Amino acid sequence: MSNQKSHRSGPAYLEGVTIAEKPEAWMEQEWTGKLQSKEGRTQFRIYYYGELMDDLIAVTDFAPQLIVAEDPVNGERYLLFDGCKHGYNTMLCDTYTAEQQNNRTPLLPYLGKDGEDTFEVYITAFYNVDWDEEFADDVDEDGQLELISGERVDFDEAKRNGYDALGIVIVNSKGEKIEIVQEELA
Question: In Å, how far are 78, 138, 139, 180 from 142, measured between CA atoms?
């Protein structure tokens, strides 16, 4: 599959803040990364906009999820998922108003069942769309693809951020895995 090379780097917006997690275990159209700060820290607080359903952060009637991780040492925030920007459908099919994009506040802290607020974070993106086959004719001479929003982005970046499914798992201090995002995005 021609999309395989692009997704082996995972989502473009996570480059430099994730490390590949067990790439030898990946299925063909899969990428998993562990969030890590530039200083090497791997514990983060999670903040989100969405509806909490059991442990999962789901879309609301108003807008899709917005999920960030915060380094508890220096307060730096890392975007994990923006349902108004990331994923195949959002980039090529669905449109969102400025209000939906900009008024997903307040971001709420994610707390484990025992009140724990700091976790390791693992993101898995799935790439089952052959972007080269579907969109090669739509790429302009500068290597840009026009998204449904009218924004033009580098085609390789579009392939990396246009995953068709996403999962986010956090791990607490006891080593328990908690799936907080499971989204089909195509």
Answer: 29, 11, 8, 38
CA atoms within 13 A on the CB side of 154: 8
> Is 2's pLDDT higher than 60?
no
Size of the chain, expressed as the number of residues it contains: 186
Q: Identify any residues that bridge with 82 across adjacent strands, giving them in sequence order.
A: 66
Evaluate the CA torsion angle 114, 116, 121, 127 in order and state its sign: positive
Closest CA to 138 of 153, 123, 127, 125: 153
Query: Could you tell me the pTM of the whole model?
Result: 0.93
> For the purposes of burial, counting CB atoms within 10 Å of the CB of 40, is it exposed (0-12), middle (13-18) or buried (19 or more)?
exposed
Q: β-pairing, 120-126 with 66-70?
A: unpaired
